[in-house]
Every structure is written in C-alpha cells, then in structure tokens.
Write a structure and sequence with these properties.
Length: 419
C-alpha cells in the first residue's frame, strides 16, 4: 500500500490489482488515493497464560479498510504468518467482495500470529478472550463484525461473542458471525463458502458447456472451504482426483473415496497417513490435469513460476488471493476460466450477512431459505461479472474488481469528504 507500514507481498498484490482496475475504470484520482489504504489499522499485544505457567505475548491485528457501504465485516485468522500487510490485503479484498455481492457492509480483517494447532484449548480460549478485550471498542454489530477464517471456527466466535457480551452486560449475538446455531448462529453458515464456490462452478460449467458429471476436480486445502467444496462437487458427480492439507497431498487416478478421506481427517485431524491413496508433493498437486482446480488454502500459491504448468479448465478461488498478477497473465493466455476469489468465495460473507440480519431481527430462517437466497445472490453476481467481462473484453477478475470498486467509489462520491 502507499505507506511502508502495511507493505508486504500480499498487500502489494492487492494494491496492484486495485490500480489496474482503477486505471481501467478511470477512477477519480482522489478516491483512488484513499482506497489504496485502510481506514484504520490496529496492532494489539495479547498476553496469555500458557499451560506451563509462563505468559506469552501474541501480536494481534484488526484492519478496517472501508465502511462507506456499511459496518466493516471480515474474518479473523490464526496462523503463524499473519502480519499487518497480509491482514490489510485481506481487508481490502473484503471491501470489494461485499460491494460485488451488493451487501450493505464494508471490508475488514483481523488475526493473531500464532499456531493454533500448538495451543491447548485453554490457551486458545485465553488468547481469544484477551484479543477480544483489546479490540473491544473497535468492534460491534454497528461497527465491525468479525467472522471465522483460517485457523478459527465457531468455538472461537462463541468466545468472542461471550467476551464482548460480558463487557456490555447483555448478550450481543450480532457482534460476530459464524457462531454456533445455539447462540444465534445461522443454519448453513459453516458450509456457505464451500457451497458458494460450487454454485459459481455450476454457472461456469454451464457457460463453458462442461458436463460436471464427467469432470474431475483437484482441491488444495481441506479445511472449512476445501472440504465442503469437494463434498458438494462429489454430490454433483464430479470425481475428486486429489486433495491436500498442510500435512499431505493425496491423489488417486480413479478418484478418491471422499467419504473415507473426510472420516479420516475428522478422526486424525490431518490427511497424513491416509492409506487408500497415492501421496504426492503438495505443490505438484496444483499441476495435475483436471477440469476444475480449487485453491482453498492460503495466498500466492499460483505464481509466475508454476502457472504455466497448471492443467485445468476452470480455476475457482476458494482461498483469498491464491493467484499472483503474474500468474493471472499466464492463465489468461492459457484460456483458463478463473472464477476470482471475491466472487467464488463470497458465499461466506453472504451467509454471514444473513446471520447478522437474523441476529438484529431476532428472527431465524430455515436452511433452505439461507441456501436459496445465497444461490440467488451468487448467481446474479456471477452473471454480472461475466456480462461485464464480455462487454469490456477483460478477464473475470478484472470485471469483478471493476464492479466491486466502482460501487464503493460511487458511494464515496455521494457521501463526500468530511472536513
Ligand atoms: P481452515 O483453517 O478451515 O482450512 C485451511 C486448510 O488449508 C487446512 O486444511 C490446512 O491444513 C490447509 N493448508 C494450509 N496451508 C496449506 C498448504 N500450503 N497446502 C495445502 N493445504 C494447506 O481455513 P478456511 O476457512 O477453509 O480458509 C481457507 C481459505 O479460504 C483462506 O484463504 C480463507 O481466507 C478463505 N476463505 C474462507 C472463508 C470462510 O468462511 N472460512 C470465506 C472466504 C474465504
């Protein structure tokens, strides 16, 4: 971004994407200068007592990129590589994602640099509650509403909700989304992102004339997004040829027995050791021949170095920022149909929006309602992006960014600069 504080490979990539779209849109220069940087970035120290009695001080972040359309919204990530630049990039992508889906929400993101797998349940809870206390005055149902991301889940959201509520003196379910249903979560949120990825793949396959029941898919990352996406694709008759997590990459020519893989992952917490598959190197999984490739792990996995070796027809970005601008240029040449992150994985924030609405109204919907409304929003967004990409002769990412950014810019111009 413009200043060094939030500079990192991820934020430079997010800004590069923004600048290309801003140029194509001929965006007002003053608006563009403002949108390159976040509204607010917090860095907090999070002391937590470890099981051995010592106190470890973790570093936590919350970045609020833009709230011109509504309260900030975005996940909280627990991962050793979390840093201010990465969180800033993710917050910026959230702004475009909410805008593209037509949600009355802005972009935010947060995280703690930690390895959640190495923390006991008690340590994780203490760290989460102290982090919540540190950012307490900057979040809230009208201000900024966190959600799960890599390394966090509904239990972490429940602890955040409880800590916030204890401080306010009454239950405030609308402070986070992705909570358990028992405390104001919505049906369908856990599955929403993976399910949404598949809704967009279905539209892409129709557009390209690809028969899904004869297709194969490869999925990188077997967590909330990747596992559900694989499961939903398998339901549609797609053969899942390979999957990976941070412990192992598995493949099988005739397709993996997905139910067995899921049961193994649930029992053992990782894919390593699964017996009925061939083991391959994690990075080579991205280069396997397939119809559909779903990166659903972390950023910058498909780069200028390996993009030329990918062999897919559709790439659906379950992860945020998995493809670098250099890789994008190569994929364009190879005529890979890329469903960009801010469209493909928007299902998570769309159903988070539904959860927030239900909490504010104290009126809860059926899962069928949730899924139908999710599908309607994503299908409309997909066709808006496809329509613009054909009209302007740009790729799907550029079209998605142009739509997301232009709506934010229009709102900023209406609201004006408070001075
Ligand atoms: P998760 O923590 O549930 O799962 C992440 C998975 O990726 C794990 O299986 C992990 O082992 C695996 N992984 C990590 N590094 C890997 C590597 N180098 N190679 C292969 N696998 C690796 O996280 P998640 O919620 O599924 O998030 C995954 C991605 O989707 C992230 O980019 C996140 O920002 C994005 N996303 C998540 C949501 C959501 O609702 N959870 C919404 C939108 C986007």
């Amino acid at each position: 971004m413009a200043t060094v504080e939030w500079r990192s490979p991820a934020s430079e990539m997010a800004v590069k994407q923004f600048e290309a779209a801003a140029e194509r849109l001929d965006l007002d220069k003053n608006v563009a200068a403002r949108l390159k940087r976040p509204d607010r970035a917090l860095i907090v120290s999070v002391p937590a007592r470890m099981d051995d009695g010592s106190v470890h001080v973790f570093t936590g972040y919350r970045v609020q990129h833009n709230d011109v359309l509504g309260p900030f919204k975005g996940g909280i990530r627990y991962h050793p590589d979390v840093n201010l630049g990465e969180v800033s990039a993710l917050a910026m992508w959230m702004t475009w994602k909410c805008s593209l889906a037509g949600l009355p929400l802005g972009g935010g993101k947060g995280g703690i640099a930690c390895d959640p797998k190495k923390l006991s349940r008690r340590e994780l809870q203490d760290m989460t509650r102290r982090y919540t206390a540190e950012i307490l005055n900057f979040i809230g149902p009208d201000v900024d509403v966190p959600a799960p991301d890599m390394g966090t889940n509904e239990q972490v959201m429940a602890w955040i909700m409880d800590t916030y509520s204890q401080h306010r003196g009454f239950a405030v379910p609308g402070v986070v989304t992705g909570k358990p249903v028992a405390i104001g979560g919505t049906l369908g949120r856990r599955e929403a992102t993976g399910r949404g990825v598949v809704y967009t793949i279905v539209e892409a396959a129709k557009h390209l004339g690809l028969a899904l029941e004869k297709s194969t898919a490869v999925v990188q990352g077997f967590g909330n997004v990747g596992l559900i996406a694989a499961q939903e694709l398998a339901r549609l008759g797609v053969k899942i040829a390979a999957v990976s997590d941070s412990s192992a990459a598995l493949c099988r020519d005739n397709g993996l027995a997905l139910d067995e893989v899921i049961a193994y992952k649930e029992k053992n917490g990782e894919l390593e050791g699964f017996p009925n598959a061939d083991k391959i190197a994690g990075q080579s999984l991205l280069e396997l021949p397939c119809d559909i490739l779903i990166p659903a792990a972390n950023e910058m996995q498909i780069t200028g170095e390996n993009a030329g070796r990918t062999q897919c027809r559709i790439m659906a970005e379950g992860a945020n920022g998995p493809t670098t601008p250099e890789a994008d240029a190569i994929l364009r040449q190879k005529e890979v149909f890329v469903i960009p992150d801010i469209l493909a994985n928007a299902g998570g924030v769309i159903v988070s929006y539904f959860e927030w609405v239900q909490d504010l109204q104290n009126f809860f919907w059926t899962e069928e309602d949730v899924n139908n409304k999710l599908r309607a929003i994503l299908t409309r967004a997909f066709h808006e992006v496809l329509g613009l990409s054909r009209k302007e002769k740009v790729d799907m990412r550029m079209a998605a960014l142009m739509l997301g950014i232009s709506r934010v810019a229009r709102a900023m111009l209406w609201r004006g600069l408070y001075a």
